[in-house]
Amino acid sequence: MADFQHVHEVPPEGANADWTIPQNWEAFNADNHRMWDRLFTRQSELLPGRAADAFLRGIDMLKLSNSGIPDYRELNARLEAATGWTVVAVPGLVPDAVFFDHLANRRFPAGNFIRSPLQMDYLQEPDIFHDVFGHVPMLTDPVFADYMVAYGKGGLRSLRFGALHHLARLYWYTVEFGLIEQPDGLRIYGAGIVSSYAESIFALDDPSPNRIDFDLVRIMRTHYRIDDFQQNYFVIPSLEFLLKVTLETDFAPLYANLKALPDIAVADIVPQDSIVTRGTQEFAASRNKK
Ligand code: HBI
Ligand code: FE
Question: Is this prediction's ipTM beyond 0.90?
Answer without folding.
Answer: yes
